[in-house]
């Protein structure tokens, strides 16, 4: 009887542990804005061999043609997008046959409380698909930008620079695995001496001011990525 009780208790413990390890993760992405933005992209006909900037609102708001004059830039940012949303729309990006892709995604995943490991796994899937479909295209993995934590609204409470640093470490490993250049915007451009996003570069602690985009573009040119 005692052995049966121990066995039952061990099974209950195992089951509860499994539940704890498989808590539901919000992987949704296809909201109304995402769908409309995808329809918009389908109606565009950019020039051949573009340079694609791929990501969320931080990418979408970027005045890339202005800060990178002479570069055939295609903006494929969607406000609110996450790593699942980017993976879903890769066929649309692949169809453009870009010469370069600059990817920046992940902060909206963190906003939802998605574990870093899940985001890194999605980056791995994204890199694998792009490297297979576009072997001649250079994929640049850009680090997730720091945030100015004291400025963040309550909706961003789950985002922290510590989590962003952990995520960026994972992205470095994905970049190494797939032989992709890793662009450390976090450390080289946006972080201040206190470990926060430079306030001169951000509107709300997360999104960029024009000065931030100018510094971003200048760094890409300085490092000869463009």
Automatic annotation (TrEMBL):
<protein>
    <submittedName>
        <fullName>Platelet activating factor</fullName>
    </submittedName>
</protein>
<dbReference type="InterPro" id="IPR051532">
    <property type="entry name" value="Ester_Hydrolysis_Enzymes"/>
</dbReference>
<dbReference type="InterPro" id="IPR036514">
    <property type="entry name" value="SGNH_hydro_sf"/>
</dbReference>
<feature type="domain" description="SGNH hydrolase-type esterase">
    <location>
        <begin position="53"/>
        <end position="213"/>
    </location>
</feature>
<dbReference type="Pfam" id="PF13472">
    <property type="entry name" value="Lipase_GDSL_2"/>
</dbReference>
<feature type="signal peptide">
    <location>
        <begin position="1"/>
        <end position="20"/>
    </location>
</feature>
<keyword id="KW-0732">Signal</keyword>
<dbReference type="InterPro" id="IPR013830">
    <property type="entry name" value="SGNH_hydro"/>
</dbReference>
């Amino acid at each position: 009887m005692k052995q049966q009780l121990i066995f039952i208790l061990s099974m209950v413990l195992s089951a509860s542990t499994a539940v704890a390890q498989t808590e539901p993760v919000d992987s949704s992405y296809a909201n109304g804005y995402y769908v409309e933005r995808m329809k918009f992209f389908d109606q565009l006909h950019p020039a051949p061999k573009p340079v694609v900037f791929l990501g969320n609102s931080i990418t979408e708001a970027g005045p890339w043609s202005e800060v990178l004059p002479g570069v055939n830039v295609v903006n494929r940012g969607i406000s609110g997008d996450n790593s699942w949303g980017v993976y879903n729309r890769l066929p649309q990006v692949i169809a453009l046959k870009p010469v370069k892709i600059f990817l920046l995604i992940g902060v909206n995943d963190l906003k939802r409380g998605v574990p870093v490991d899940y985001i890194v796994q999605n980056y791995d899937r994204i890199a694998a698909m792009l490297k297979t479909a576009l072997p001649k295209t250079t994929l640049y993995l850009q680090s997730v930008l720091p945030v100015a934590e004291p400025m963040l609204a309550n909706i961003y409470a789950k985002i922290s620079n510590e989590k962003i640093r952990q995520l960026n470490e994972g992205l470095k490993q994905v970049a190494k695995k797939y032989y992709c250049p890793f662009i450390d915007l976090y450390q080289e451009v946006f972080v201040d001496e206190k470990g926060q996003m430079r306030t001169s570069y951000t509107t709300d602690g997360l999104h960029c001011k024009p000065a931030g985009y100018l510094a971003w573009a200048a760094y890409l040119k300085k490092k000869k990525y463009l």
